[in-house]
């Protein structure tokens, strides 16, 4: 069901250095192409496999593409870390200790969103939100990298950028 104007999400509009300029409704932020913020969360199980999901067909951006375990916009006035925990809970029903791993500044590969990547180790059983997620699967990083090389367009732009970063920086992938 479409959101009414009073229910529409509000995001912070930021500059190229990720400094807040003002807040605006989602429709304005996306409609006018303003820079804003997002988070991606990787859930890695005890076997070292990454949980990925296929975005629901009804998603506004990149429907039916594979992406991070959870992801979403940072709401106006919200910290990246709070957004990451909220998205993980809303999309997968998982509560976990998150570690910030990386930040990609806005650009075409992130949909003009400054995007922070968080990760957690968890064997919790995910409960996917069907409005957000069509399918989930756990894969070894090597399997995901091979798939990325074969079929990059199967993945969302930000997820591709984070996967490439993780390939080049595997030594930095540690938990607090």
UniProtKB/TrEMBL annotation:
InterPro entries: NUDIX_hydrolase-like_dom_sf, NUDIX_hydrolase_dom. This is Nudix hydrolase. SUPFAM superfamilies: Nudix. Its EC number is 3.6.1.-. Keywords: Hydrolase. GO terms for molecular function: hydrolase activity. Residues 34-161 form the Nudix hydrolase domain. Gene3D superfamilies: Nucleoside Triphosphate Pyrophosphohydrolase.
């Amino acid at each position: 069901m479409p959101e009414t104007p009073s229910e529409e999400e509000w995001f912070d509009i930021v500059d190229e250095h990720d400094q807040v300029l003002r807040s605006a409704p989602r429709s304005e932020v996306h409609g006018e192409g303003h820079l804003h913020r997002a988070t991606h969360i990787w859930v890695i199980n005890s076997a070292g496999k990454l949980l990925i999901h296929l975005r629901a067909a009804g998603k506004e951006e990149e429907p039916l593409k594979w992406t991070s375990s959870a992801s979403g916009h940072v709401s106006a006035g919200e910290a990246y870390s709070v957004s990451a925990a909220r998205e993980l809970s809303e999309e997968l029903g998982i509560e976990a200790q998150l570690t910030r791993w990386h930040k990609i500044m806005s650009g075409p590969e992130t949909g003009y969103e400054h995007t922070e990547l968080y990760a957690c180790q968890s064997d919790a059983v995910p409960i996917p939100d069907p409005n957000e997620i069509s399918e989930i699967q756990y894969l070894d990083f090597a399997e995901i990298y091979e798939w990325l090389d074969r079929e990059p367009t199967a993945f969302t732009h930000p997820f591709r950028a984070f996967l490439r970063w993780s390939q080049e920086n595997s030594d930095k992938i540690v938990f607090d």
